[in-house]
Amino acid sequence: MKKNKKLLKNLPNKEGYYGSFGGQFIPPELKKPLEEIEKEYLKAKKDINFQNEYNDLLKNYVGRPSPLYFAKNLTKKLGGAKIYLKREDLNHTGAHKINHCIGEALLAKRMGKKKLLAETGAGQHGVALATAAAIVGLPCEIHMGSIDIVKEYPNVIRMKLLGAKIVEVNTGGKCLKDAVDSAFSQFMNEYQTTFFTIGSVVGPHPYPMIVKDFQSIVGKEAKKQIIKKEGRLPDYIIGCVGGGSNAIGLFNEFLDDEVELIGVEPAGKGTAVGQHAATITYGSEGIIHGMKTIVLQNKEGKPNPVHSIASGLDYPGVGPIHAYLKNIGRVKYTSVSDKETLDAFVELSKIEGIIPALESSHAIAEVIKLAPTLDKNKIIIVNLSGRGDKDIDYVVKLLKIN
Ligand SMILES: *Cc1c(COP(=O)(O)O)cnc(C)c1O
């Protein structure tokens, strides 16, 4: 593999592009508010007080650094490469999303904003943001489709307990897309006083950059940890890709190293439209949610319906940084099916005593395929992006255990 020199160093460019991906496809009124967010973020990045406050919360509130755990039972059973799990599931709130939600909340506070605003689908972003809002001390408003409210009721209760206001969205299909539209139009009305947060490395510039930077703590820790444990860098790094925040968080620190990076997308139930959400694998260049990226879309450029067993991966777009990394060949993107994912969920639970999120189980499924093909002296790090407690009721139904 060719040694890359500071692959993302001068990216994004001034217009927010990574190669031909990214940018800002937004109403003209929003240009200025987003410019202000970018300006203030770049200042905060260099401000030692801001960084100290962020790092203190990561350490004492989130519980970082998360362990890099050698999965010796899984390694032994698969009989190939050594497998390490980056335990983001052990973070407060049980997933990696808290890393960037706290960052965004602190940035909003620094800018003097009066409220955090977001949409949520399954409620994972909503819960992480409501938590960050509580600890940072800002009100929080979450828009959610009425169908999702029924489906994801425990997360609705969590958000309410955390003090968030839930806005029920009854338009259109009453799901994530409608919640996005609703939250966005609310933002158009009050962008002077409100901070719109985004739950992954998606959306218009500067969001992909900001969320990537906040998530990059994961890779920084993993690099130190693996060097301490093994005296060298890993050979492979694997992460599941929905919008792409947990994957880029782990990849980022290794982009310039001789490490093979693999992003795993949800192949769902099949290759037909509506059966999967493997955007990079099957999509084409298009525009979605304010960015140019790879999109699963029809001939008119409308996003296709998507499916995944993991609601956090159920997205017809992907972060522009991933579209770029795919295009230049730096990251390999593969996909695994619902069935392989469910098998991996069961396997990791049984053999390591760790119940993984269905999202993270995609990365585990890829490891289960890859590790046995590799030499015993090879090393793999997998991002275990979240814990699976949230998925248990659903899995029980699928497996028909009781
Ligand atoms: C939301 C979520 C994901 C998918 O989001 P990315 O931005 O692709 O990381 C993955 N794992 C867990 C546990 C999640 O909650």
TrEMBL record:
Q: Report the InterPro entries cross-referenced here.
A: Trp_synth_b_CS, Trp_synth_beta, Trp_synth_beta/beta-like, TrpB-like_PALP, TrpB-like_PALP_sf
Q: Which CDD domains match?
A: Trp-synth_B (cd06446)
Q: Which reaction does it catalyse?
A: (1S,2R)-1-C-(indol-3-yl)glycerol 3-phosphate + L-serine = D-glyceraldehyde 3-phosphate + L-tryptophan + H2O
EC number(s): the record gives 4.2.1.20
- Taxonomically, the superkingdom here is Bacteria
* GO CC aspect terms: cytoplasm
Q: Where is the Tryptophan synthase beta chain-like PALP domain?
A: 63-386
User: Which pathway does this polypeptide act in?
Assistant: Amino-acid biosynthesis; L-tryptophan biosynthesis; L-tryptophan from chorismate: step 5/5
Residues with N6-(pyridoxal phosphate)lysine modification: K97
Q: Which cofactor does it need?
A: pyridoxal 5'-phosphate
Which UniProt keywords are given for this protein, alphabetically ordered?
Answer: Amino-acid biosynthesis, Aromatic amino acid biosynthesis, Lyase, Pyridoxal phosphate, Tryptophan biosynthesis
- What GO terms are given for molecular function? tryptophan synthase activity
Q: Does the keyword NADP apply?
A: no
Q: Its biological function?
A: The beta subunit is responsible for the synthesis of L-tryptophan from indole and L-serine.
> Which family does the similarity line name?
Belongs to the TrpB family.
NCBIfam families in the cross-refs: trpB (TIGR00263)
Q: Subunit arrangement? A: Tetramer of two alpha and two beta chains.
Q: What is this protein called?
A: Tryptophan synthase beta chain
What is the organism of origin for this protein? Candidatus Nomurabacteria bacterium CG_4_9_14_0_2_um_filter_32_10
This chain is encoded by the gene named trpB
